[in-house]
Design goal:
Layout: H1 2-9, H2 18-38, H3 43-46, H4 49-65, H5 72-77, H6 83-102, H7 110-160, E1 165-170, E2 173-178
Antiparallel strand pairs: 1-2
Helix pairs in contact: 1-4, 2-4, 6-7
Length: 181
């Protein structure tokens, strides 16, 4: 829904009540902090933590992009250092899911869990970078070249079509419409 709202409003800055914007930021940040600090201690919260993270991150994206609010968070997320990660995010998602499915994660010690998580994340980022450089980027360039070729062919064929003009009369005005064959 948030993606749809961003798409519909594209480059427009929405005007939302400051109270609602502030409440959205407070709830979003508090949900994320609760998730980080208390996730391992409360089994009841583990039922909904993925939805809470999705809603919180969705609000941050919506507020930064459409509402142009967020201050230092917006400037941090808009920085150019994130560009490489944005290019490999699909690969990270796909490899992380497969890697986590195949590796066991039964650790009792918190430090072992964190070390395992850091190793897994690093390994998946390296694997995703290799996948992007070897497969995704070259095929993306080939797709761009192919689509430009197709667009050029279609635009040349479209210019050669003759469009008959049909006149219609409504309310004592003559309207001309071009209708393709």
């Amino acid at each position: 829904m948030i993606g749809h709202a961003i798409y519909v409003n594209k480059n427009e800055q929405l005007k939302v009540n400051k109270f609602l914007v502030t409440a959205g930021w407070i709830l979003s940040v508090s949900f994320l902090l609760v998730n980080i600090l208390f996730l391992g201690f409360n089994r009841k919260f583990q039922i909904i933590y993925r939805e809470v993270i999705a809603i919180s991150i969705g609000w941050i994206v919506f507020a930064c992009h459409s509402l142009k609010s967020g201050g230092f968070i917006r400037s941090f997320l808009s920085h150019g250092y994130w560009q490489p990660f944005s290019k490999i995010c699909l690969s990270i998602y796909l490899f992380h899911w497969a890697y986590e499915t195949l590796t066991p994660t039964a650790f009792n010690d918190w430090w072992m869990k964190m070390a395992h998580h850091i190793f897994d994340t690093s390994f998946v980022i390296v694997l995703s970078t290799i996948f992007y450089l070897v497969i995704e980027a070259p095929f993306g360039k080939l797709t761009d070249i192919f689509m430009k070729f197709i667009d050029r062919k279609l635009s040349n064929n479209f210019e050669q079509l003759e469009m008959p003009i049909i006149e219609t009369q409504t309310d004592d005005k003559v309207h001309e419409k071009s209708i393709p064959k």
